[in-house]
């Protein structure tokens, strides 16, 4: 499928969604400029191999779904098209107040598996909406069962608290939705560190071990060309300290203050390459320049 044919599929699907969900309460296109550029590309392109616009459409589909209870449940599907869609799956995140974070992660994983098995190479946002409608009640039931189950008292010792720092490598990080999720999730989970978009993409998060693992569980299920934990640091905390002192101990181990998206003199045709010398200096200032060689196989300077 050529780049132009992929763009035609994207535009046709958006026009179909617009006709099916005509109000902004049902369908909200968050990047109208990207949609206009896509339409101009499809309607005015003279070559099937001319490059597509750098930005791709992003939108929310908002549904009120019936559940076993008397209340209707608000469900939002956040959708973003990779430039290769529909040759690759779209980025779809399901948000529902009736589900825990773990349940939302699971429904995202199961939805991706369904789309990969049944819709690979085809437009599939409507299939995703239908799947969520058909399966949401099951996840709500599981969530309610977990909440209502009696909690068993355990005589086993409390697991040892641990401070973790994850160094994550991605082939690239361009997508605005992914970049927004990384920033929002790190803030929500109380993690510090940084993310460097572009090619390659780098993310470092540090904080309580459980929060780092939750962050990684959310990030890794998004659609990536390649993503992995390149290096991790796990430091046990004193089992005997009180909770307030454990927080102080975690904060003393942090090398970053807060979480930020770091840019280092973007360059290249698409502005997607960073100055690795500046990255090395940044890491050196934070006392973690040793990871530069782990990422790139060379010593920084």
Automatic annotation (TrEMBL):
InterPro entries, alphabetized: Phi-like (IPR017359), Prp3_C (IPR010541), RWD_dom (IPR006575), RWDD2A-B_C (IPR059181), UBQ-conjugating_enzyme/RWD (IPR016135)
Per its UniProt entry, which superkingdom is the organism in?
Eukaryota
Task: Indicate the segments annotated as coiled coil, or none if absent.
Answer: none
> Where in the numbering of this chain does the RWD domain appear?
12-139
Q: What is this protein called?
A: RWD domain-containing protein
Which organism encodes this protein?
Answer: Perca fluviatilis
